[in-house]
Amino acid sequence: MLAILLIIFPLFALLLFGIFKWFTRARINRVDAPLPDHFPDDGFDHQSFQKLLDQFVNDIGLIDYARWHEDEAACTGLSRYIAAVQCYSPENAPERFPAPMDSLSYWINAYNALVIGQVLKYWPLKSVTDIKLPLETAQGMSFFYFHKHIVGGQVMSLFTLEQDKLIKAKADPRMHFLLNCASGSCPIMRPVGGTAEEMETLLSEAAADFVADTSNLLIEHGTGTIILSSIFKWYMSDFTHVAPEPNSPREKRLIAYLSTVAREPLKGDLRRAVKYKLIFTPFNWDINSA
Fold first, then answer.
1. Are 225 and 188 in the same domain?
2. Are 170 and 235 in contact (CB under 8 A)?
3. Are residues 204 and 228 in the same domain?
4. For strand 27-29 and strand 147-151, is the pairing parallel, antiparallel, or unpaired?
5. CA distances in angstroms from 261 to 95, 101, 177, listed in the order given
6. What per-residue confidence (pLDDT) applies to 18?
C-alpha cells in the first residue's frame, strides 16, 4: 500500500501543479497597430495619448470608458500609442530619453495607457478585480500580474513595470500620485508630462492635490489620529526613504514627508501632528469611470 501511495502522490502533486500553471499562464496583451502619425525619429511623443485624455477624462480626473469603448477611432488611437510603447523604452532606445524626467514620464504614461487599454479590452467592468483567474489568491492579481504587455520589446506585467522600473529604480516617490490603476482610491488621471519642467509641475501638483483630499488624508486633532489612504501603507518605504529626519520612526518620517509636499495650511497641521497615530483606510477598487 505504501509503495502505491509513493507512486500516486508525486503524480497527483504533478497534476495539481500542471493545473495551477495552466490557470495562471500569462495572457499577453499585444497590439498590432502602426505608430502614431508623425511619430518622431528621436525622443518619444506622448501627444497622441494626451489628445485621448483630453477627450475622455473629465474635470475631476475620471475616465469615460463607456464612450471611449464605443469610439473605434479612439480605441485605434490608443492602440497606436501603445504600439510606440511596445517598440521603444529608455532601456532599448536610451537615446530617445536623454534626461531622467524623460524616462520617468515614459514609465508613468506607459503604465497609465496600458491600464486604460486593458480596461477597455474587458469593458464593461465594475472593478479591475472582476478580471479573475480560477486560482487567484489576491485582489487584482490577474489584472496587474498575470496579464502581460510588451514594453520596449520586453514582456512584463503592470506589477513588474511599477516595481522594477519605478519603485526599485527609486524614482521620485511623487510618481505614485500620477499612476492611475483605474480604481476609486487611485490618484486621478492627469495630463501627460513632456519636458522636465512639465513633469516637475505635474509631480508637485499631483502630490499636493492628493494629500489635500480628505479621503486620502484627514487629521483628527481631537483624537490625535491621521487617517490615510492605503497607498501610504503599501508604499511607505518609498516615501520615508526621502523624508527628513532619517533616523526617526518610520511613521514620523511619513508625516514629515507629507508635510514637504502639502500646501498650507495642511503643511502646518502635519507638522503639529507629527506624533499622531496613523490609521489606513480600506482601498476602493470600484472602477474610476466618469
1. no
2. no
3. no
4. parallel
5. 32, 18, 11
6. 40
What total number of domains does the chain contain?
A: 2
209, 237, 263: which is the final residue of a domain? 209
Q: What pLDDT is recorded for position 138?
A: 58
DSSP state for residue 138 in the 8-state scheme:
S
Q: Which domain holds residue 241?
A: 214-280
Tens of pLDDT, residue by residue over 16-61, are 434 344 344 557 989 999 999 999 999 999 999 999 999 999 999 9
Q: How far apart are CA 252 and CA 9, in angstroms?
A: 52
Residue 56 lies in a domain: yes
Cell 463607456: give the residue. 66
Which residue type is seen at 102? D
Per the CB < 8 A criterion, the answer to whether 160 and 110 are in contact is no
Question: Whole-angstrom Cα distance, residue 103 to residue 89?
Answer: 8
Residue 8 placed within a domain: no
Query: 169, 186, 209: which is the final residue of a domain?
Result: 209
Pairing of strands 217-220, 225-228: antiparallel
Rounded (10°) CA dihedral 248, 253, 255, 258: 150
User: Do 238 and 198 belong together in one domain?
Assistant: no
For residue 227 the three cell numbers come to: 487617517
